[in-house]
Please model this.
Amino acid sequence: MTEPVIRSLLDTDLYKYTMMQTVLHQHPAAAVEYKFHCRTPGIDFTDCLGDIRREIERLCQLRLTEDELGYLAGLDYIKPDFIHFLRLFRLDPRFVRLDCRQGELELRIQGPWLHTILFEVPLLAIISEIYCRRHHPAPDWEQARARLQRKIDLVSDGEHHQGFHFSDFGTRRRFSRRWHQEVVTQLSRQLPRQFVGTSNLHLARRLGLLPVGTMAHEFLQAFQALGPRLIDSQKAALEAWVHEYRGRLGYALTDVVGMDAFLRDFDLYFAKLFDGLRQDSGDPIEWTLKALAHYRRLKIDPRTKHLVYSDSLTMARALEIYQRFRGDCTMAFGIGTHLTNDVAAAPLNMVIKMIACNGQAVAKLSDSPGKTMCEDPDYLAYLARVFRVAAP
Model:
């Protein structure tokens, strides 16, 4: 029998736990639904289905060990009652529906938000690794290592990159767990000044790295159903985050209904409370110019704020953005698939997104074409109209 894809409940992104803690304290009864979507055309998952089912069964047998709980408790924003809850926590396979029709993988997660929020990242990692095992069983590892080394050399080449900082964001679409660990190990050894951490809690703990992350799209999406009014949903989500973390983890995600609509809500109050913003769709140059202009309109020096970039970055693209704006603000970059799945053929472009909360449709109106996910076109049109943005 092959070794499990996921061997620890910490083998996920930090922001799943930070959001989960907020859900425990503020919306423990919320019910949600997530849906899997593979954006890469023509992918046939038929031969992967049995292995994916077995890996989900293995995943749902895991519990956090006392050592792992101790590690989480050592993070100053994780609270004791959340640790007590996690001591009892286990993922429940009854919340996952999985099938394959004509090669297309049909995966839905439905149940209490508190008990389903940790499924997304490990399920994507499972699907990615199983697919890679099946379709690329004997990759050229020397070529993969050579490509990784060229990326490392690109960063280490020259004094003008010394202020460049990036983290690993590559768990969900990685080639394999073992390759992910090798990549992060090499980055931390060879680029100790530029490589500042990883979103993966298991690797952060094992390698002594900084765990990196705050919130994801689902957090702001859920408030489309949880907030007092749809037009106030972004502000309600940001208020909830501030209430939970009191100034810690202060990076706001900007593209749930688009950057323009976000900035209309991100007034002086929030601009002073949050340390910075994260870009995850659209043109990063245009996004940066809008962010800088917004801070300046509010008479805030953008050099006192952090801008974080995490949208399908390559190392070369991240360095290009850094060189363009290095004197205007502090920047950081989260680089994922480009590092953790540049092994064989092009990696799968796949997501699991929240599509409903408390029986109501929710959606992300992305700044990038093709990233919007919603099963209710009427709600999507309503959301666009309320936030005064173009409907997809």
